[in-house]
Amino acid sequence: MREVAVVSSAVHQVEALTFTTDVQLMVPLINQARDSVGLCQDEIGFTCSGSSDFLAGQGFSFVQTLDAVGAFPPIAESHVEMDGAFALYEAWVKLQIGEVDTALVYSYGKSSPGSRRDVLAVQLDPYTMTPLWPDAHSVAALQARRLLESGGVTVEELAGIAVRSQRNAVGNPNALRASADVTIDDVLAGAVVADPLRATDLAAEADGGCAVVLVAGDRARELCDRPVWIRGIDHRVDAHGLGVRDLTRAPSAALAAARSAEQAGFEADVVDVAELHASSTAQVHLLTGELSLGDDVRIDPSGGSLAGDTLMAAGLVRIAEAARQVASGDADRALAHASSGPCLQQNLVCFLEGQ
Amino acid sequence: MTVGSLGELTAVLGVGQTRYQSTRGDVSIAGLVREAALRALEDASCTWADIDAVVIGKAPDFFEGLMMPELFLADALGCVGKPILRVHTAGSVGGSTALVATSLIQGRIHRRVLTLGFEKQSESNATWALSLPQPFSVSINAGAGGYFSPIIRRYMARSGAPELIGCMVAFKDRRHALRNPYAHLHQPDLTFDQVVDAPMLWDPIRFSETCPSSDGACAMVLGDEATGDAAAGPVAWVHGTAMRSEANNFPGRDEVNPQASRDCAVEVFSQAGITDPRSEIDAVEIYVPFSWYEPMWLESLGFAEPDRGWRMVEDGSTDIEGGDLPVNCSGGVLSSNPIGASGMIRFAEAALQVRGRAGDHQVDGARRAFGHAYGGGAQYFAMWVVGADKP
Fold first, then answer.
1. Does residue A193 fall inside a structural domain?
2. Which residues contact B272 (CB under 8 A, 6 or more apart)?
3. What CATH number has the domain bearing residue A72?
4. Per the domain annotation, does A102 fall within a domain?
C-alpha cells in the first residue's frame, strides 16, 4: 500500500447559507486547502468531489461547482453522487496506482432550502418504502426504539451522548450546537421530536462544505511538518430494506473497521480519537460498539456530526476533523467514520496516524 | 500531468447488456440492472461470490426521481457486505464509471470488480429533469439539442462541411444498428431520403439525427492480470485510460473542439503507445448523441486532420462495410441511449470488438479498439483503449 497523507483541509458549516451559491461556498475552502500547502491546481494530479443533485434541485449541479476549482487548463477529475468521504476514497485509490502524487477532494451540501427530513424519503426503495413517505427523523427513531427495547442502551445514556457532543463542540467554529454547561437533565427536559428521539438526539442539520488535499509519500513530508497518514481505509454496504436488517447492528461498519484495521496494523481500541458520522445519538452508541472503540477513545472531539451535519459533506468533515486532531499533535492515531443511507446502511472507516 | 504506470494490468472478463427500448415496463430498476449484471457474470464465467466490489454509474438522479438509487440497488447487485461506489460525471458517466472500476484493479485494491451503468428513462422525463428552474438564472428549456446546435453550426462554418454530412452519419449508424440485437432503433426500411426529410428539431439537427430515449443497463466484469490470464475465453486488456474535465464557460473556450477532449485523447493514446490512431485503432466507439459529433470528435481525437473529419464520413471510411476505420458498429448512441449506460456501452462495445465477440457487427480481426464518452457542455471526457493482447 502506497503511503498517502491528508496534508491540509478546510471546513465551513453554518445553519443556513443564504445568498451563497455552491461556487461561492467552495472557492475559499478549496483555495485555503491548496494554499496552506502551497499547491496550485496545475500541481494537483487528480480532483474528486461529492455532492447531490437532489439538494441543488438541479441535474448536473456539480458541473457548475467545477468553476470553484479553476478547471482550465483541463484537469483529471471525477465526481461521486456520495458523501465526500467516498470521493476521498476514490482519490486515495488513484494515488495507489502511482500515476499521480497529489489529489484535491471536496464536497458540499445545502439542504436548508428544502425539508431535508422529507427529501431523504426519496432515498428509500421507490417501490416499497418511498410511497409511504417515511421522514428521516422517523426512520432514525425506529432504529433508536429498537436499540432501547433490545436493552442495549437507556434514554439517559443517549442524553449523555448528546451532552458530550455539545460540550466537545465548544470552540469549534463549525459546530451549530455547542454548550459548555449543558447537563443530562437539560437534555431530558427537551421535547420529543420523533419518539424516542429529542431534537438534541438528532444531528444538527447544516449547510456547508469541506476541501481536503491528499499527497503521497515523501512529497507529503516536504509539504507539511506532520502529515496525517491514511493507514487504512475501507467501506462496505448492508442490505437496504429496514425490515430485512437487524437495526441494532451495522455489520458493514464492523466489517469496514476490521478491513481497515488489517491494513493499518492497529485496532480501533488503540486510537486516541474517533470522529463519527451519525444522524442520532442512538447511532453514535451503536457505532461505538460496531467499531470496537476502547473506553479511552475520545469520541467526537469536534462534537461530531451531531453538532453539525452537512448532508454529502459530513463524512469528509469527520476525516478533516480527525486529521486536524492528529496534525496538531492532540492525537497520534485517529479513526474517522462516514456513513450513508437509512439507518447506517453504508459505512466507511479510515485509520489515520501522525508521524 | 505526468504519464506514469498503469499499475496492475486490467482485463475485461465479461460484458452484459439489456435489449435497449423505450420502456422496460416488465422489470423494476433493480430487475433491469440485475439482468445486465447476470449476463456480464455469465460472460465472465463468474458468480456473485467472485465479485469484490461494485461501481455503478447513472446520469442525474432526477431522471428517475430517486436520490442515490445505488443504496436500494445494493441488494440486487449482490453488494451486501461489499463496497459500492456511485459515480456521476454528466453524460460521460458510463465511461467514467468503468474507469473508476478499472482504477480499483490498477491500484491493486480488488481482483474482480463489477461495473454497471443504467438509465430507466421511462420512469420519469429527462427534458423536465434537465430544465428545472433555478433562482437567478434563465432557463432556455431547450434540452441538450438546443445547447449543442449552435456549436454544430460553428463546426459547419469553419470546416466547410456539406449540409448533409449529419444525415449520412445518422443513416450509417441506423444501418449499423440492424446488426446489433441490443440496439433500440431497428429501422430496416429506412432510406437516406427519409433521414433528410425528417422534421428539423434544433437547426441543423433533424429528428432523425438525434438519439432516442432508452431504458437499459450495461455491465462489465473487470479482473486483474491473473484472472485475465486464467479466463477460459478471450478477454480485452486495458491499454490506456484517461479522464479530463474543463470549465463550462470562459472567454476563448473552443466549444467545437474543447481542449479537455484533445488532452484526454493525447493522454490515452500515449499510455497505449499509439502515435497514429487512424492506422493503429481497428474499431471506434465514440459518444455521438447528435450526428454531427462523429466528424467533430474524429478531428478532436486525432483520427482526422482539423476540419477534415467530415470527409471520412463522406467517403465511407467510418462505415463497417468497406471503411478503414469503422465507427460505432453497434449503432452508437444514435441508435440506443440509456443515458447513464451510454458511455459504458461504448467502452463495452470496444471490449467486445477486441474479444471477437461483437457478433454481426464485428470488425474482422480487430486487435485494438477505442471507447469514448463525453458530457456536460462538452466538458467531461472519459476514454479507454483496449486490446486483444496485453499492453
1. no
2. B239, B240, B368, B385, B387, B391
3. 3.40.47.10
4. yes
**Is A59 an interface residue toward B (CB < 8 Å)?**
yes
Are the C-beta atoms of B282 and B304 separated by less than 8 Å?
no
Q: Locate B382 and state its grid cell.
A: 472519459
The answer to whether the beta carbons of residues A224 and A110 sit under 8 Å apart is: no
User: Residue B75 is nearest to which of A58, A64, A239, comparing CB atoms?
Assistant: A239
Residue A281 CB coordination number (10 Å)? 31
Structure pTM? 0.98
Per-residue pLDDT of chain B (391 residues; tens, 9 = 90+): 333 468 999 999 999 999 999 999 999 999 999 999 999 999 999 999 999 999 999 989 988 989 999 999 999 999 999 999 999 998 899 999 999 999 999 999 999 999 999 999 998 877 777 777 776 666 666 678 888 999 999 999 999 999 999 999 999 999 999 999 999 999 999 999 999 999 999 999 999 999 999 999 999 999 999 999 999 999 999 999 999 999 988 999 999 999 999 999 999 999 999 999 999 999 999 999 999 999 999 999 999 999 999 999 999 999 999 999 999 999 999 999 999 999 999 999 999 999 999 999 999 999 999 999 999 889 999 999 999 999 9
Q: Test A54 with B62 for CB contact under 8 angstroms.
A: yes
Inter-chain residue contact B67 with A236, CB threshold 8 Å: no
Rounded-to-5 percentages of helix, strand, coil across chain B: 35, 20, 45
Predicted complex ipTM exceeds 0.95: yes
**The three cell numbers locating residue A167:** 460540550
* Beta bridge partner(s), residue B382: B243, B373
SS3 B146: helix
One-letter amino acid at A201 equals D
Q: Is domain B10-125+212-230 in CATH 3.40.47.10, yes or no? A: yes
Q: What secondary structure does DSSP assign to B7-63, as a single string?
A: -S-EEEEEEEEPPPBS--TTS-HHHHHHHHHHHHHHHTT--GGG--EEEEE-S-GGG
Give the B window 117-156 contacts with A, CB below 8 Å.
Answer: 129-130, 132, 134
Nearest CB to B247 within list A72, A82, A126: A72
Going by the DSSP 8-state scheme, the letter that residue A154 receives in this structure is -
Residue pointed to by grid coordinates 466547410: B160
Residue B206, C-alpha cell as written in the block:
433533424
Residue B323: CB atoms within 10 A of its CB come to 17
Query: How far A75 CA sits from the closest chain B CA (Å)?
Result: 5
Which chain A residue shows the shortest CA-CA distance from B79? A237
**Domain regions of chain B by residue span:** 10-125+212-230
Specify the pairing of strand A309-310 against strand A192-194: unpaired
Count of domains in chain A? 1
Determine the distance in angstroms separating the CA of A261 from the nearest CA of chain B, rounded to an integer: 15
Burial A51-74 (b: 16+ CB within 10 A, else e): bbbbbbbbbbbbbbbbbbbbbbeb
Residues 6+ apart with CB under 8 A from B10: B102, B105, B106, B222, B223, B224, B225, B228, B237, B238
Residue A33 lies in a domain: yes
- Minimum-distance CB partner of A90 among B75, B81, B85: B85
* Strands B200-202 vs B53-57: parallel, antiparallel or unpaired: unpaired
Look at strands A228-237 and A346-354 and give their pairing: antiparallel
Domain-embedded: residue A24: yes
Q: Which residues of B touch A71 (CB under 8 A)?
A: 245-247
Taking the CA of residue A120 and the nearest CA in chain B, the distance in Å comes to: 8
Count the alpha carbons within 13 Å of A77 in the hemisphere toward its beta carbon.
36
Pick the residue from chain A with its C-alpha nearest to B67: A123
What is the chain B residue with the closest CA to A339? B71
Determine the Cα–Cα distance for residues B177 and B366; give it in Å rounded to an integer.
Answer: 19
